[in-house]
Amino acid sequence: MFFGRKKALKILFVAPEAAPFVKAGGLGEVMFALPRALAEIGHDARVMIPRFASIDQSKYRLTMEHEALQVPTDAEEDTQTTPAYLICNVKKYTPEKSGDTRQPVTSYFLENQEYYEFRSNIYGYTDDAIRWALLSRGTLEFLRVSKWVPDVIVANDWQTGFLVNYLHTVYKNDAKLNKIASLFVIHNLSYQGMFDHRFVNESDYDDGQSLVPSFFNPRLLRVNALRRGILHADSITTVSPNYSKEIMTKEYGELLDDLLRERRSRLYGVLNGIDYEVFNSSVNPNLAANYNEETLSERAKNKEEAQGRFGLDRDPSAFLLSIVSRFSEQKGFDLLFDLVEVMLRELKMQILVLGSGDSRYMSFFKELETKHPGRVGAHLNFDRDLPHLVYGGSDAVLIPSKFEPSGLTQMEAMRYGCVPIARRTGGLADTVKDYDPKTNTGTGFTFEAFDAQALLVAMARAYENYRNPAVWQKIQKSAMKHDFSWKHSAEEYERVANLAMNFAEKRGNP
What is the DSSP letter of 232? Predict the structure, then answer.
């Protein structure tokens, strides 16, 4: 039995992106930090992604690992337009043994000119289903010829649901692959394939039971790869414990709640972490002044700098509320539309906005800045460095999400003593502890209902407690002391990987 076994595991993470090579969002950061954290506790963790054109081969010293890999397409006819195989190379990155803890782990890159190297973006193409099926099948074909074979494959989000499906159907009798355990990670249940899963004709419905169509079959575009990953995986995990419970309900289940309840014995939740070397108020170079829990008074210099940088009045007594986010319906900023004018009129506060996304939110924040000069400042572009100053100078950060599988903003902000005002959902519920004046404990202010009035109450509570410096500093210190490092996440993934291996062993020996 694998369960409970204490041994070094071989773990392969497969995903569309991984920092520092290529990154479009939070998944890329997770694919850098989590494998590295597992390596630090003794496991042989590696990563496999496509080799996009933007990846600098000379910078990362990529070497040829396997040339002319034949990846089956399951095409019915072997013609020039629908070939039976796509030819790929596999390149390899090997970290230098220099003691640099910021290096990524050993990484593999599936190379194909048509589907990866000739594309300027990671996502957003009409043939994305082929691109992710190729990554999934190409990974498995590579492992068939590789000397290094993992104990566990960790497949991430719908793009790699194909891999889990292939592993347990097409390759179920492959002597080299059929002992590999599969762990499927749901980062966001809202994205399930190349279609809107909420509006599917009965004829297009994919129950996940049939074989994956060929790369060139139009039906591939209608495959629900997320459903297939959930259905076939040895174990499933989400990016926070609370989200793993929420998605088994009708409200959050995105039409997969029945399947998830059926597989609940194999469903776990592991909270994402943050990089404590990067998000460190004691040494971060993007701050006007460094500080820690014992020198919180130094934050005033960062507040003044942030106010100046965003065109706000330099008022040390104003309650400085920040918004650091991707702007989409998921993030819940619709609640502000009818509320923000009341907040600005009734409270001595300023609002600092950093982010980009849907145009209606961008327009809303831009108009708000124009209407309230000196009290609202907006930087509506992605910026890698500014969040550190924003967190280091703001009194609070607003996170009113409709749903939030994990969320990193609240953890990053808390690391800087920036108090979260957040809706109690998904990973926010796992990470932000509502302030209790009776016990003088908590790390932020939360509200339950997705409702503007509920948000207003939470805002008022935060504002009133901010006016009591002793209480506010106690909340800030509690937030800063909370440990969201990747080490804890890695230890949980170690546990779930062992559980997946246990299930895989039972699968092989019914």
Answer: H
Q: How many CB atoms lie within 10 A of CB 280?
A: 15
Contacts of 21 (CB under 8 A, 6+ apart): 49, 55, 60, 93, 104, 107, 109
- Cα–Cα distance, 404 to 243 (Å, whole number): 8
Q: Which residues have CB under 8 Å from 289's CB, separation 6+?
A: 298, 299, 301, 302
Q: Which residues contact 423 (CB under 8 A, 6 or more apart)?
A: 332, 399, 400, 401, 402, 404, 446, 447, 448, 450, 455
Rg over CA atoms, the chain: 24
Burial zone of 431 (CB within 10 Å; 0-12 exposed, 13-18 middle, 19+ buried): buried
Q: Which residue has the tokens 């796509």?
A: 86
Rounded CA separation 397/389 (Å)? 13
Gap between the Cα atoms of 146 and 369, Å rounded: 56
**What's this model's pTM, rounded to 2 decimal places?**
0.92
Model pLDDT for residues 221-260, shown as the tens digit of each residue: 999 999 999 999 999 999 999 999 999 999 999 999 999 9
Q: Are the CB atoms for 467 and 150 separated by under 8 Å? A: no
Confidence of residue 100 (pLDDT cuts 50, 70, 90): low
The 10s digit of each residue's pLDDT in 178-205 is 999 999 999 999 999 998 888 888 888 9
In whole angstroms, give the CA distance from residue 284 to residue 298.
14
CA distance 185 to 215: 23
Q: Which residue has the tokens 């990987």?
A: 497
Total Cβ atoms within 10 A of residue 314: 12
The answer to whether 265 touches 215, Cβ cutoff 8 Å, is: no
Closest CA to 104 of 15, 180, 193: 15
Q: Cα dist. 62→47, 50, 55, 147, 165 in Å? A: 14, 13, 10, 18, 29
Cα separation, 458 vs 245, in Å, equals 24
DSSP H or E segment with residue 302? helix 299-309
Tens of pLDDT along 43-70? Answer: 999 999 999 999 999 999 999 999 999 9
Task: Set out the domains of the chain in order of their start, with CATH numbers.
Answer: 10-273+487-508 (3.40.50.2000), 293-483 (3.40.50.2000)
